[in-house]
Design goal:
- The protein is of the alpha+beta class and about 220 residues long.
- It contains three helices and eleven strands, in the order βββαββαβαβββββ.
- Strands 1, 2, 7, 8, 9 and 11 form a six-stranded antiparallel β-sheet that branches. A five-stranded antiparallel β-sheet has the order 4-5-3-6-10.
- A hairpin with a 2-residue loop joins strand 4 and strand 5.
- Helix 1 packs antiparallel against helix 2.
- The two termini are about 25 Å apart.
Length: about 220
């Protein structure tokens, strides 16, 4: 974005000798993720509510124990969602009760990205039948954002210099105002799937996170005339 403000006239109808150039600046860096999270679900069905609850609880306990054996600490395993629903079939417009469905979703945080596929495989082998929202991130995002912010400010400065040179005015090197408008962007593997027990070697590649910062900057310039 470029915004060149035409100089206003003073009381003698002569242009003022200074005005503003307003520009946007962007900075972006690629970061290797060092942490991940994944939602692992245990879904059970039964005509008897107590039976469904007991089965779901037993499966969830088995999954949690298997993850702890892999080295996932207990405070990195938390319940993300827990639902009890009634299931129905419909025959010629008539509602027929089929049973209960219990859904228990665990959110698991993984610090060692080399075992993320193994975490999913182990969970599936121990009762998980729903996997979703695999998300990669960096623990020190703020530090990387600060680096991107420096690039964004420098980018804005270079744009202002280019504009000033093109219209042949003298640019004040220090901006009189900078507005931060940035955000951090990261890839998310967000595909829900139902897995079959016994599936192995799930490939989950983190790729790279793009950390982006955006600013709006205003620079004062002086007319050369």
């Amino acid at each position: 974005m470029y915004n060149f403000n035409s100089p206003p006239l003073d009381r003698n109808r002569h242009p003022h000798r200074s005005n503003l150039i307003k520009v946007s600046g962007e900075g972006e860096i690629d970061v290797q993720p060092d942490s991940a999270s994944v939602n692992l679900g245990i879904i059970t069905d039964s005509k008897q509510l107590i039976t469904a609850q007991q089965q779901n609880s037993a499966e969830a306990t088995k999954v949690i124990d298997s993850l702890i054996e892999l080295g996932i600490t207990k405070n990195h395993i938390q319940t993300f969602d827990y639902r009890i629903e009634s299931d129905y079939d419909y025959d010629q417009g008539k509602q027929i009760f089929r049973g209960y469905k219990i859904t228990h979703i665990l959110k698991v945080i993984i610090d060692d990205l080399s075992i993320i596929g193994k975490v999913v495989d182990t969970a599936v082998q121990n009762g998980v039948n729903y996997v979703s929202n695999v998300q990669f991130t960096a623990k020190n995002k703020e530090l990387f954002y600060q680096q991107a912010l420096v690039l964004a400010v420098n980018n804005a400065s270079e744009k202002a210099k280019t504009i000033a040179s093109t219209i042949k005015v003298s640019l004040k090197p220090t901006p009189i105002q900078i507005i931060e408008e940035g955000s951090t962007v990261q890839p998310v593997f967000n595909q829900s799937a139902t897995f079959v027990k016994g599936m192995t070697s799930t490939p989950l590649e983190p790729g790279q996170i793009k950390v982006k910062a955006e600013v709006i900057a205003e620079f004062k310039f002086t007319s050369s005339h």
